[in-house]
Amino acid sequence: MADEELFGAWLDQELDLDAAWNGLEPGPTVDEVMARISTTPSWFLDDSVDVVALAGDVLDESGGPVVAAARKAAATAKVAARQGVAVVLWLVSSQELAGRLSTDLRLDRLDRALLAMSLRLAAVVEPQRWVEEAERREEAARTLLLWCGQCPGGESEQNARAILSRLDSAARGEALERARRDREHRSEIRRRLEQARAREAATRYSPE
């Protein structure tokens, strides 16, 4: 079942899916990333792991935006969100522990990838399934590469886009659209309240 709270947190980031496809650089192959996801250590997915501290350890001083993204995911208090963060951090740290990928993941966009994985994808597919199920693992690998600003190695952008569109669990479900409508409704209510307050203030302080 989709987690609409996580979808709401994702929409709050105002990251556009179509824009993410612009200016992709070459990345590692999907098979490489899938294989690395499948080796995610079980302790990374433990409920007790402090993913904000883990992000700081993995990225050191250069990881400010990633730590901030991990903090946003952790603030949802959702296990799936924290586990989504942990899988991304494993993919980064594993390049030192288990060997480099053919092309390094782009760290300059890793904060966006972390948010997409922990808020958007984890809202519909539990990260444990990324590790255990081949199709969901492919979806996770392709989602990560997209939001890292990388096209899967050996694929055209057109092909990569078509495959991810077919696999995209969030886009296929109704929960994301409901969350989007709820967010727009709340924004409209806030806008109307602000207009009412402005009119009231203008009336109160206008000269007679």
TrEMBL record:
<protein>
    <recommendedName>
        <fullName>Phosphohydrolase</fullName>
    </recommendedName>
</protein>
<feature type="region of interest" description="Disordered">
    <location>
        <begin position="174"/>
        <end position="208"/>
    </location>
</feature>
